[in-house]
């Protein structure tokens, strides 16, 4: 797996990450969603540098210009519900991409810290020989991405896989390195050191879905 950890270089991305981690700023759900969307745009821009380009002839009012434009058939797959703002940021840049949506949630066993990741909904176009972009803001244990990959197998074999995340754990990154093909690219804004006993990233930022859309039962 090729890991692109954007926190290794200072950029405006630092400001967006600082704000989504800040417990005071997190109280503004609209601002939290917007910052996640902005992060998606930054990660999408970096991802775009690795796509396949070809020259296109563009007619302006005064002449003709050759411009290199991306040619990849993209499918953006958002993991609901937390992945929606990040997905929107990518869609702002890849507006011609096809889209897939999958619901994955943690089911805890008898109120213990142990849990399974349950996939209960999937809507996806064919991903056969296309560029699949998996959109999951929090890469904690890596089990959600593993189950998502398994759920998509009936929809074809992509020619390339990209994973876009906001914050991950070292453990989660190491886990998916053994699950995904070697030529998979991970685009991530920050990687934290550890998980707690409940599988949440420390220091992380909390539950991204709840911060975006409100607490759930």
Brief sketch in words of this structure:
This protein is an alpha/beta fold and 217 residues long. Helix content is 29%, strand content 35%.
What would you say this structure looks like, in words?
The chain has 217 residues and is α/β, with parallel strands linked by helices. The protein has one domain: Rossmann fold. The protein has six helices and twelve strands. It has helices at 13-21, 29-48, 84-93, 143-151, 170-177, 208-213; strands at residues 2-5, 53-60, 63-70, 74-80, 98-108, 115-123, 131-135, 138-139, 160-169, 185-192, 194-195, 201-202. The strands form three sheets. Strands 1, 4, 5, 6, 7, 8, 9 and 10 form an eight-stranded mixed sheet that branches. It has a two-stranded antiparallel ribbon with strand order 2-3. α1 packs antiparallel against α2 (29-48) and α2 crosses α3 (84-93). The protein is globular, with a radius of gyration of 18 Å.
């Amino acid at each position: 797996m090729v890991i692109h950890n954007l926190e290794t270089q200072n950029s405006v991305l630092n400001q967006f990450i600082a704000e989504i981690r800040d417990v005071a700023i997190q109280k503004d759900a609209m601002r939290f969603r917007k910052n996640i969307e902005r992060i998606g745009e930054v990660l999408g821009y970096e991802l775009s540098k690795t796509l396949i380009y070809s020259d296109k002839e563009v007619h302006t009012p005064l002449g003709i210009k050759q411009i290199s434009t991306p040619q990849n058939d993209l499918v953006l797959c958002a993991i609901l519900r937390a992945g929606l703002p990040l997905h929107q940021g990518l869609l702002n840049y890849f507006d011609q991409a096809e889209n897939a949506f999958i619901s994955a949630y943690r089911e805890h066993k008898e109120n213990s810290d142990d849990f399974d990741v349950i996939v209960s909904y999937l809507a996806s176009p064919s991903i056969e020989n296309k560029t699949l972009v998996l959109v999951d803001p929090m890469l904690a244990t890596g089990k959600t991405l593993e189950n998502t990959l398994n759920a998509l197998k009936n929809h074809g074999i992509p020619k390339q896989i990209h994973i876009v995340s906001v914050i991950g754990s070292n453990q989660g990154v190491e886990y998916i390195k053994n699950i995904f093909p070697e030529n998979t690219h991970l685009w991530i804004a920050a990687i934290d050191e550890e998980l707690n006993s409940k599988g949440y990233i420390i220091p992380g930022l909390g539950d991204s879905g709840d911060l975006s859309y409100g607490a759930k039962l």
